[in-house]
Amino acid sequence: MPVPDQRDPEVTRSALAEWLGRHLPGVRIPHVDTPQTSGFSNETLMFDAEWTDGGQTRREPFVARVAPTRYQVFPEPRFADEHRLMRILDERTPVPVPPIRWYEPSADVLGAPFFVMGRVDGRVPTDMPPYHMGGWVTEVAPDERAAMWWSTLEIMAVLHRLDVAELGLDFLDRPRWGAPGIDQRLNYYEHYLHWAYDGPQETALKALDWLKANRPEEPDEPAVLWGDSRIGNVIFQAGAPKAVLDWETAALGAPEEDLAWFLFLDRHHSEGVGAARLDGFPSPAETVARYEELLGRPMRHMAYYEILSGFKFSVIMARIGQAMIDFGWIDGTSDFPYNNNCTQLLARILEAGR
């Protein structure tokens, strides 16, 4: 969901060029694409840089990811952790992320911390409209959709098999919310829910009560979780993933949590919005079976993690609804923060599980 952006393109270009000159002496930035709207969580700036190296003129496309300045979708953004994780993934693992180049921790240059990545060409499935309803995913062959699905799943399996201790990824732990996994997630999202929107939350609270009452054991060592695992966060070229994006909700926990989010978001983008699921995308049962093969163990308690996914997304939608009220896009009395496609889907799942 975009929010209004008032960044001055020329001021941004000049500030960014001066800063980048510390890393690439003599660099020129002819133009910066500053969006008319900016995402809730982070702002994305695209630009080309030109400089001379060994007598040769070089030109390279970059992306600057800027920490949120206008509106926070999460109560405590972890921008520095996102950069740290992406750099480790880029430099030390097979997980494909954009090449991470430089990080600026201060707000002096662009008004907020930011990091610069190499730009990766390709296409990303759309959320608006959901990719089952419109956009380029509806136009490709079913075989390409299947390739997108399975290849993203394989990347998730690589991620979930990473050695947390060896890679120094313990910083993803959030002990103030409890033990890694379900304990942290429930405590954090309960806090998040009350911070997100000061209004009724019947469905989300019902889900939270159910989740607390039916909490399963997580017997394995916590794995690195993507957090926002879905094909809508992957840059594809002809069905092949070239870069995995959006690591701001990365955490430690059970792989089932990522897999359930992957499936729930796809269900939301089809059944949840009243759209038929496109041919080529494997079924949930086929997906779970394949993931069990990839990890070499059964996927446990998937019904629980589906409700956890719906609860987490309902909390995020509550915050988006509050933002829409704050920006004057909907009336303050609107029920959207607690009655939307996500909460309606979650209510049906809860009712069916009785």
Helix and strand topology:
Layout: E1 2-4, H1 9-20, E2 32-33, E3 37-39, E4 43-53, E5 56-66, H2 79-92, E6 100-104, E7 114-118, H3 142-160, H4 164-167, H5 182-196, H6 202-213, E8 223-225, E9 234-237, E10 240-244, E11 251-253, H7 255-268, H8 284-295, H9 302-326, H10 341-352
Antiparallel strand pairs: 1-3, 2-4, 4-5, 5-7, 6-7, 8-11, 9-10
Helix pairs in contact: 3-8, 5-9, 6-9, 7-9, 9-10
Walk me through this protein's architecture.
By secondary structure, the protein is of the alpha+beta class. The protein contains ten helices and eleven strands. The model has no long low-confidence stretch (mean pLDDT 94). It starts with a strand and ends with a helix. The strands form four sheets. A five-stranded antiparallel sheet has the order 2-4-5-7-6. It has a two-stranded antiparallel ribbon with strand order 1-3. Strands 8-11 form a two-stranded antiparallel sheet. Helix 3 packs parallel to helix 8, helix 6 runs antiparallel to helix 9 and helix 9 packs antiparallel against helix 10. The protein folds into two domains: 117 residues, Phosphorylase Kinase, domain 1 (2-Layer Sandwich), CATH 3.30.200; 217 residues, Aminoglycoside 3'-phosphotransferase, Chain: A, domain 2 (Alpha-Beta Complex). The chain is 39% helix and 16% strand.
